[in-house]
Design goal:
mainly beta, 4-stranded antiparallel beta sheet, globular, 2 helices
Length: about 110
């Protein structure tokens, strides 16, 4: 049985956020290697990937980069767990190639 790579997104109700992003978001262009969310910082953006792809990466205890997830064209993405709770990200989300994102800013009140 094949399961989607980003299967957890199917358990989230994101329709209002996606609609809001489509209505009020702006297009941003990212070069390969440009960062959407930086590990150790609270993510401020929610995006819908129009073209390209992003990879979720972390640094191992040995100092190597490990890819732990992807966002592909047509998908919504952010650091879902930490950003919505207003806590620092445990991953960086980095453009894997030239990419275009419909993006909105969001903030979480403490």
């Amino acid at each position: 049985m094949n399961t989607p790579f980003n299967e957890y997104k199917g358990r989230l109700e994101l329709s209002a956020l996606i609609d809001g992003c489509r209505e009020k978001g702006r297009l941003y262009h990212y070069a390969k290697g440009e960062i959407f969310v930086r590990e150790g910082e609270v993510g401020r953006y929610f995006g819908i990937l129009e073209s390209g792809y992003f990879k979720y990466v972390t640094v191992t205890t040995e100092g190597d980069e490990a890819v732990v997830g992807f966002a592909f064209e047509g998908e919504s993405f952010c650091d879902f767990n930490n950003s919505f709770q207003g806590i620092p990200s445990e991953v960086s989300i980095v453009a894997g190639n030239k990419a275009t994102v419909c993006r909105i800013n969001f903030s979480v009140s403490s």
